[in-house]
Amino acid sequence: MGEYTFNEPALGALKPIFAPSSEPESLQTTALIQTLALLPHVEGGYFSQTDEDPKTIPSPYPLTPLSGETASQAVPPRPGFDAAVRRLSTTIFYLLTYRRPLGRFHRNRSRIIHTLHRGRGRYVLLHPDGRVESFIVGNAVERGERLQWVVEGGVWKASYLLDTEGNMASEGAQEPEGLLISETVVPGFEFADHEFLSERCLEELVPEKAMALGWLARKSEEAEEVTDSSEESDAPDVNSGETVEIGEAVEIKISKGKEE
């Protein structure tokens, strides 16, 4: 589907472009975060729920959470949550930024439809059979970049920010605009249906590829409390340093060129 889309990728091509930064977000990014009332997401990046279908359906999933770790972090549980019921759908904004440029491997029981609004990034999917799929999301559709993409339930996904065309990630260059998308989850999102991929499970799923993909797996020290954006809350002060830390930074260097 184009030079920027491939299955079973050369894993050496999957490399971080931007390191998580201790510096404040740019004024432009801060304004966007505050305008959209985004909060730090436990997966990385920022999010805000924008819609939930008022209709509900009987849950097609087991009553027990997919991950006890994730469920235990959802404190407090979403008001009105019933393990036997699911909302028909939910939609969020999701943003990766220069400071929070990485969404670590996780999966959901439900199907997720993604729509690009701005920016550029790479997605890496791990299928249940161990197949690795990767593609770039962006506006260069003539080269295979995607404006919409679907991740089926049970598929592990990770994402990271790429530089936009013509904006090289070199010293003195303008900070990238970030990757802003919408995600619609069907049936609707619940933390009971969410699970992170640990480094140990990654080794079990793809033993020959685990070393190359390990930087996309969640580190045990990165556990943090889940925030429910449906609760009434003011937009965070992203410059305070109190709510946007994501644990131990990935020790990498910023690339001096765009990803090819």
UniProtKB/TrEMBL annotation:
Parts forming coiled coils: none
InterPro entries in UniProt: Cupin_DUF985, RmlC-like_jellyroll, RmlC_Cupin_sf, YML079W-like
PANTHER family: DUF985 DOMAIN-CONTAINING PROTEIN (PTHR33387:SF3), RMLC-LIKE JELLY ROLL FOLD PROTEIN (PTHR33387)
Entry superkingdom: Eukaryota
Protein name: DUF985 domain-containing protein
Skewed-composition ranges (Basic and acidic residues): 250-260
Amino acid composition bias (Acidic residues), ranges on this chain: 222-235
Domain DUF985: 31-197
